[in-house]
Amino acid sequence: MTMVLLGVAAFLLLTLLLALIRIWRGPEAADRMLASQLFGTTGVAFLLVLAYAHSWPALMDVALTLAVLSVLAVAAFVTRVVRIDRDDTSGESGNGESRKEPHA
C-alpha cells in the first residue's frame, strides 16, 4: 500500500512541476492564477498522501494551512481584478451614451 501511495505522490509532484511551468510562462494573469490554484490544490493532495503514507499527522495541519492560504490568494486576485475593471469602466458615462461631441 505504501508503494502505491508513493507512486501517487510522484504523480502529484509531476503535476506540481507542470503547474510551476505554467505559472512561469503565463501568458495571462488569469492563467497564472489558475495554475497557482492547481499548485495549491495539488500541494494539499501531495501533503495528505505523504501524511497518510508515513503516518505523520503534522503534515495534515500543513495541508490545511496551505488550503486556507490558497483560498485567500484567490480572493486577493479576484479583488484586484475587480478593482482594475472598475477603474477601467469608471471613465465611461454608464448610460450607454457616446462621448462624441454633438454635431453643430
Task: Characterise this structure.
- With 104 residues, this protein is mainly α.
- Helices cover 80% and strands 0% of the residues.
- It has 3 helices and no strands.
- It has helices spanning 2-25, 29-54, 57-89.
- The N and C termini lie far apart (83 Å).
Write the layout of secondary structure elements.
Elements: H1 2-25, H2 29-54, H3 57-89
Helix pairs in contact: 1-2, 2-3
Question: Could you write a compact summary of the structure shown?
Answer:
By secondary structure, the chain is mainly α.
In helices, the fraction of residues equals: over 70%
- Largest sheet, if any? none
Class from secondary-structure proportions: mainly alpha
Topology as a string of helices (H) and strands (E): HHH
Low-confidence stretches: none
Number of strands: 0
Distance between the termini: 83 Å
- What is the beta-strand fraction? under 5%
Q: What radius of gyration results from the CA coordinates?
A: 22 Å
Tell me the overall shape.
elongated
Rounded average pLDDT: 81
Number of contiguous helices: 3
Entry keywords:
80% helix, single chain, mainly alpha, 104 residues
